[in-house]
TrEMBL record:
One of its GO terms (biological process) is phosphate ion transmembrane transport. GO terms for molecular function: ATP binding; ATP hydrolysis activity; phosphate transmembrane transporter activity. It comes from the Bacteria. This is Phosphate import ATP-binding protein PstB 1. Coiled coil: none annotated. It comes from Enterococcus cecorum. Pfam families: ABC_tran (PF00005).
Amino acid sequence: MAETIISSRDLHLYYGKKEALKGINLDIYKGEITAMIGPSGCGKSTYLRSLNRMNDLIPNVTITGSVMYKGKDIYSPKTDTVELRKEIGMVFQQPNPFPFSIYENVVYGLRLKGVNDKQILDKVVEESLKAASVWDDVKDKLHQSALSLSGGQQQRVCIARVLAVDPDIILLDEPTSALDPISSVNQFLKCPKMLAFICANFL
């Protein structure tokens, strides 16, 4: 039987008084791609954001229940959410590049970790952009603003930014809406070190 990497138990989430997640019990298994498919507003994105505590950034959110990751409840007061989000990365539906160069977007997480060796950064930038299938498009303009790219290219740079920090898990909140779905799935399958992929999509 596959190893459980994330386990949600009796997970409830409220936006104010509105209950958005109702007693979710779900196991995510190592080495698998887990897809959540449903209509708009059914709670897919809310659940994804609950797995790396992105919902903490939304006012008036209340969460009960537990989400276990590596044997610990991520909602424990002892959890370092910055470290958690490095291990459980997220790619959003809409491209959200930082107002920096393409290069600095990709290395942003590494710099937060204290990595400043140019050789290491250059290598990671190339590998991550290749994995995101955008290297050929941007290799000659790495120091131009990421905001100057097309929507699809921006999304691939955002994917590269997540891949650059080598997360254990990637949460995908409809990230291929601006991309070719088949090629996008294939690029994630090329990442053997990932423990799991969790993807939300519309019906």
